[in-house]
Amino acid sequence: FRKKTAWHKDFVTPYTDLMPVKGKKLDILKGTLRAEFNHYNRSKNYSEILSLINDGNFADNSIIGGNSILLSIIKENPNIEVDVLESLMNAGLTPNFTDLVALVNMKSSFEMINLITPALKDPIDKIWYDNFQKNTLVMVAAKQLNGTLFDYWLSLGVPPETNEYDFNALDVLGQPENADELEQAINIFITLANLNIMPYEPNALTRIQ
Asked: What is the mean pLDDT of residues 98-112?
């Protein structure tokens, strides 16, 4: 049996589905508003998008193409300047947890993720199911060998495991392909060891070695 860790003593966050706004009827953009937004978004005309926001055209549950308004903007221009994004958020575009997970999977800049995270209304220690596996943000960072995000999520209370009888951050730790990734992997491994996290999969340590 796997050694029990103390990490889950106070961790009872429920399992979640990644929906743009869970528990609310979605407001799908249609007609003229949809056409206007798409035109301004594709042309990166953020002043006009700002006008649409200020005129009250979008709600927290507004989506287009299966994405929130905010995520649609970022996907159209992944290199959007953070201060432009911040102005759109200050005007009323509120990010949700699904947006954050999408940005992490897109490997967006730390500056962008650090802007989005404090603005979330959702808790960030959620567990979600993807590719036949439960995940936390710490586990994704370990998989990506992103030491910066790994430390960031841990500092905000995100757990490195979903429960003690399933894969954890050590089980999913990425395979380094260069010297920088090797350094990231070693640092992540040491941190997990200090947290008394043991792999759930018996062969995980052999793979890591």
From this structure: 95
